[in-house]
Structure formats: C-alpha cells, structure tokens
C-alpha cells in the first residue's frame, strides 16, 4: 500500500476576510480556510451571531456592520491592521418579486447589496489586499433564465460577470473572481422558502445530475481553490450541481 504524501496547507500563514461570514457559505468558507492554515477575519450584520461564529472558528478578529453601508465598509478596511490576502463577499440576499410592484427603496437596496457593495470593496482593495491576493464575489445561476419575479436577480446576475472581468484588469495583480451557485441548502434558503424547503430539496435530489442538494461546503471548497490557485482571475465559476441543465 502506498502511503499518502502529506500535503501542506494551501493557505498557511495567509489572512482571509469574509464579509458575511456568520452563517452559510461565508461561515463554511471561513471554516475551510482555517483548516488550510489561514487566519480569518469575519464580518456580519448581526453582532450576536457574529460573536458565536468568530468564537467557534477561532477568528483573529470580527466586526459587526452593514456591508451595504459605504461609510461602514470604508471604515472597516481603513482599520485593517495590515495587508490581507483574500476577501470573500457573501453579504446580501436576493430579492424576488414583480419589479413593477416593488418600492423604489427595495430596488435600491437590492442593487446596493450586490453591485454597489462589490464596487465599494474593489475601491478599498488597493493597499489593503496584497498583490497576487484575491477578491471573490457572489452571484448565482438561477437568474440566468427570465421569469416573473426575477427581474432584479436577473439584472444583477447579468452584470456581475462583466464587473468582475473588468475589475480583474483594473486591480491587477490582485485577482478578482466570481462564484455563481444555484440553490444552496443554507439558513438563508430556509428563510426564503419556509415550508416549501423540503419539497425543493426533494425536487433537486430527483432532478439534479449529481442526485443531491448542493451545500455550503461545496461552494466553500471552490472559494478556497480560487484563493490558492494564483492563475485564476476575471472569471465566473458555476457551482450548481448541474441545475442549469435541467
């Protein structure tokens, strides 16, 4: 029997910032980054949930603020003690519903939580993210098909790959990539679906080519790979278990 060769941790000695790191994909990515030797800095909107997450992971530090507030985001980056290696942004949630029935403040909030937050993080990155480090943003695959209630989600889904590709050029040699999950079984998904959650899980197990539901750990594995593989920038990476195919 061949003895496996020990593998060095992929992020040993590096610092990973997770904006939206108290639950779901952000939390799982922080957990995986820790197992790969990274120090993690967590942020989230809910102070109590953030404290629990930071304690469980042994985070280097944490900061509670609303990432869609440009002043709060700028203050967080200004106070970072030293250059960091990677920033993952998972903060924000999709807003579904017929566009013409939405209030203007809801529309602005949805756009601000995704496009404008990504832009503001990119503005803060020079001087705070080391050359060769990375920014990773979140989008999705579900908004690629038009449908009633998907206007805002679809608009953000279409815009994010173009934004990321251009930022990869503007911020080079900092790398910029985009994760695009489909349905992921997270607390946020449970909140959105409510009593329809189990039916959705069953449907996906029966129809997805992978015959199981995508979980936060699946997305986290790809996020950490994008951090460690220094040849990757300016691209969108789908992780939806083949959901687009069916």
């Amino acid at each position: 029997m061949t003895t496996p060769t020990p593998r060095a941790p992929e992020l040993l000695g590096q610092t990973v910032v997770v904006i939206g790191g108290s639950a779901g994909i952000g939390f799982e990515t922080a957990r995986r980054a820790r197992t790969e030797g990274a120090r993690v800095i967590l942020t989230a909107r809910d102070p109590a949930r953030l404290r629990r997450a930071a304690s469980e992971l042994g985070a280097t530090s944490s900061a509670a603020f609303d990432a869609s507030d440009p002043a709060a985001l700028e203050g967080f980056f200004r106070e970072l003690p030293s250059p960091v290696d990677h920033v993952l942004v998972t903060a924000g949630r999709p807003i579904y519903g017929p566009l013409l029935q939405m209030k203007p403040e809801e529309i602005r909030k949805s756009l601000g939580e995704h496009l404008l937050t990504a832009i503001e993080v990119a503005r803060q990155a020079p001087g705070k993210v080391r050359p060769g480090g990375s920014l990773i943003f979140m989008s999705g695959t579900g908004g690629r098909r038009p449908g009633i209630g998907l206007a805002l989600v679809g608009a953000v889904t279409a815009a994010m790959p173009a934004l990321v590709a251009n930022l990869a050029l503007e911020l080079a040699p900092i790398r910029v990539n985009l994760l695009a999950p489909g349905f992921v079984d997270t607390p946020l998904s449970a909140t959105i679906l409510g009593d329809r959650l189990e039916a959705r899980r069953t449907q996906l197990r029966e129809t997805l080519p992978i015959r199981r539901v995508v979980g936060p750990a699946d997305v986290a594995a790809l996020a950490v790979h994008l951090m460690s593989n220094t040849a990757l920038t300016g691209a969108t990476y789908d992780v939806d278990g083949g959901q687009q195919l069916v």
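The helical segments are 24-35, 47-57, 70-79, 104-124, 151-170, 187-193, 197-207, 216-228. Residues 15-182+215-237 form a domain with the Rossmann fold fold (CATH 3.40.50.720).
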